[in-house]
Design a protein that fits this description.
Number of helices: 4
Helix content: 25-40%
Strand content: 15-25%
Amino acid sequence: MIARVDRSNIQDLADLALKLWPDSTREELERDFDAYISSSNDAVFIARAEEGAVGFAHCSLRVDYVPGAESSPAGYLEGIFVENEHRRKGYARTLVDACEQWAKDKGCSDFASDCLLDNHNSIEMHQHLGFTEVERTVSFYKKL
């Protein structure tokens, strides 16, 4: 079952998000997700199995440059996670479908995502879900 996240299930969401972003704190994630679920430009969905929450996806509307997008705003998959034992069972597809439908309902005709160059599992998932790779980048930083 896929449902839109609200404040009643934000703790389940934070439990999952800590596995995707372990350098974050629970407090940071709960604060961030509280802002996302309150925003009309973001949506967060949670996947549940009999034993509880097994995955989530966060999507947003982006009006800045989105590689491959031909219109603005574009729907954007900001993050997705499915527990290892529940992968390859359709949860990611269902979560992305919910995000894509939300973006369509917001008037988007493009939907995009990204991942790190060395995240081969994510690259494979994106390709399996119908995404087309449009560019590869290396980011740089300098402290001023």
